[in-house]
Design a protein that fits this description.
5 helices; coiled coil; 2 domains; Lipoprotein EnvF; signal; 262 residues; lipoprotein; alpha+beta
Length: 262
């Protein structure tokens, strides 16, 4: 009886030891997870802080002037471009290729260093000959110094102010910001500021070349269902247009046939 009691007691001790070990392991895992989360949060904060420091041209006019001077120095005298963009951490521009005038190339300044030139495929001019493309490119190029970029910090503040006042979108200086001045795919000039909120809603301010405000709008968050519905509507409308054109063509052909019969 004593032997059974001892064995039972030993078994209880073993179970207690295993349970304590498991609890300790769980606690260690929990502590490790908490520590990992803290490290991840710290890492993200450091990245955000570094990105903010490298994007001071968005918030300070003097820093924007430095960025403008940096682009001019890299692009050369009388820099002509089809696109320039300012983004968190840097900026880029696309100019006509020096060696191949019918082509364009990109230079990108990021994390304190220039990269490029990188070839860029031109799509805004369609499938035309190299000579025609070169001629069209001459028409599309605009002088970098013809755009008032020094106004950007002021306009960003105004965009944030309007966005938050709307009650639809909430943005800060740490939100994703993109400023672009470019010749779009349709051949038209575009100069705007886009600030994206965490929920993907966007505040967009359109500017004239002199930096004056041309327009402002708030765009709703990206909704996959709505986008799919829009795409379906476009497909349906396209189908209806094609059907209408076929019907008109058939009616015209019928008219021609009737004329010949007479």
């Amino acid at each position: 009886m004593n032997k059974i009691h001892v064995t039972y007691k030993n078994l209880l001790l073993l179970i207690t030891f295993i349970a304590a070990t498991l609890i300790s392991a769980c606690d260690n895992d929990k502590d490790a997870m908490v520590e990992a989360e803290k490290n991840q949060e710290k890492y993200m904060q450091e990245i955000q802080q570094k990105e903010h420091q490298q994007s001071m041209f968005f918030y300070d006019k003097a820093e924007m002037q430095k960025a403008i001077a940096n682009i001019n120095a890299k692009g050369g005298a009388n820099l002509a471009i089809i696109e320039v963009r300012f983004f968190k951490g840097g900026y880029s521009f696309i100019r006509q290729s020096v060696n191949t005038p019918a082509k364009v190339e990109m230079f990108k300044f990021n994390n304190g260093y220039w990269g490029g030139p990188s070839p860029v495929n031109l799509t805004i001019f369609g499938t035309i000959t190299e000579e025609q493309k070169q001629e069209a490119l001459k028409e599309a190029l605009f002088k970098f110094d013809s755009i008032n970029f020094s106004i950007i910090p002021e306009r960003i503040k105004e965009t944030i102010k309007r966005a938050n006042a709307s009650g639809i979108i909430s943005v800060t200086e740490d939100s994703d910001i993109i400023v672009r001045a470019e010749i779009a795919h349709n051949g038209e000039f575009v100069y705007d500021i886009t600030i994206t909120a965490k929920n993907t809603a966007r505040a967009v301010m359109t500017l004239n070349k002199d930096g004056s405000i041309a327009g402002y709008e708030t765009k709703e968050p990206f909704d996959p269902k709505k986008e799919a519905e829009k795409a379906q509507q476009l497909v349906e409308q396209s189908r209806k247009d094609i059907e209408s054109q076929r019907k008109k063509a058939a009616e015209k052909m019928n008219e021609i046939q009737q004329t010949f019969k007479k």
